[in-house]
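Entry 12.
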Amino acid sequence: MPSYQAPIRDMRFVMDEMLDYPAHYARLPNGDDASPDVVSAILEEGARFARDVLLPINQSGDEEGCLLEGGEVKAPNGFKEAYQQYVEGGWPSLAADPAHGGQGLPPSLAMLLSEMICATNLAWGMYPGLSHGAADALRHHGTDDQKATYLTKLVEGVWTGTMCLTEPHCGTDLGLIKTRAVPADGDAYAITGTKIFISAGEHNLAENIVHLVLAKLPGAPEGSKGISLFVVPKFLPDAQGDVGERNGVTCGSLEHKMGIHGNATCVMNFDGATGYLVGPPNKGLACMFTMMNAARLGVGIQGLGLIEASFQNSLSYARDRLQMRGLAGKQAPEKPADPIIVHPDVRRMLLTQKAFAEGGRMLVLYTAQMLDVVEHGEPGEEQDHAETLLGLLTPIVKAFLTEVGFESTNEGVQIYGGHGFIKEWGMEQLVRDARITRLYEGTTGIQALDLLGRKVLMSQGESLKVFTKEIHKFCKAEADNPALKEFVGPLGKLNAEWGELTMGVGMKAMQDREEVGAASVDYLMYSGYVTLAYLFARAAKQASVSLEGDDKAFYAAKLNTARFYYQRLLPRTKAHAQMIQSGASSLMAISSEDFGLGFEI
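Predicted 3D structure (tokens):
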């Protein structure tokens, strides 16, 4: 079975030394609640829960899967008991509003816990994962009665939540949905339709499940402009707000999946189910985006957690596995062969995992600061700045970290060699679990279009300028710092090129809209690599001034990881830049009918 130790030392480096989280929390209203002692307790206890409760049921949950009998879903053995411990520990309420039973702590602390959960048992983590988004959607868009009925239960974890978006014929094009909502008694609606790919749509972990469902009202406009949002509970609340009669929503089947076997991914049938409108009619997609954006950040953290899990176990194996001698001669002469960690290519794979784990953690915690300010900060210039950066970085967090997450877990299998292909070691499960992260909550292609099309080009590049100005100021301030010369020079050039590439795509797009789609994924990956380069440069700055302290080995390793990133991973931007500039012509030249020339379909 894979092992795991929460990387608390690295988390604290990013939080306390690099991003100055203590000062950040001090600026937030009620930030005093996130005292150093509280943060330490959350990290230590979260690490224990992930390691001792979730990790032991990860492989068994993958092998056992979920069972559907008579419309009821049973999660794998141990999952329900783990969820009860999670609720008893107060974890669901960590960052929720005290008005609804929450602890009111900054969202960034919940994101740290999320990384630990994703690293140890991603499938289990998906059961409570969407409840936070459901609560946020109701908090922002629900009526007072809806908030009173559902929020406290969701915050406490007594009830869980889902988001029911797509249907068999839709995919990401939600304007095609066929689920209908017909006015019924009072302010209720009868919801009828089928939703697919519903994570945790039915299970036995909590006493009730609150579905947020997209549907169309009679006479609604065509396409996405005619979508409304409804709250549809599994059990209708009674007069006291407790579980009442069963609603007309059932699980028709469980999806048979490549990975995340321990999570119930359901086909949900709504047969005249009672639901209630959330937000204005025909504005459901905008309301759901409150939930979707939170989910996208959550999926990026899933990618990070899986990278860390794969790296830790790859490193342990590479230190123990004996095979061949080092190219420069015997490294462990007392042994029959050298440990494979001495071989340069194994080190390349390990350092790739390490760089993406540490860089991804910096990206998540940097973005988490923006989320803290947006959720808890005072209205004004700082909050507007944070909201712009959060919007820009969300698709990068989601798509870049899941793309490199899949790469990193694959490298983990490769480091194990043939043993990585064997189930008992647990490395192939990480690959299977990681594969879905590039798909749900919007594929990489969808995130790329969101970044380049909506966030950057639709703002005339202003959202990007907010970030590139920050990078420029850093490079200018550190231009004469000899310890950072190897980082600041390349970063400054890439930062300038980022703007040039953006302008180039924008000019082409004025003549041909296909140019945006043709460039978007390479643009997102380029953006991700440059963003991590900026964060590694900041980490290198902090490490360079701490080298003479008590933890010299840690800071030296941080500098070496930054150098590896700049020398071995950052050059990938050259290929992405060339592909961005190559345009759409080679992609669109062949007609769809001519794709199959040379064979019959």
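Annotation: The mean pLDDT is 95. The CA atoms of residues 371 and 511 lie 36 Å apart.
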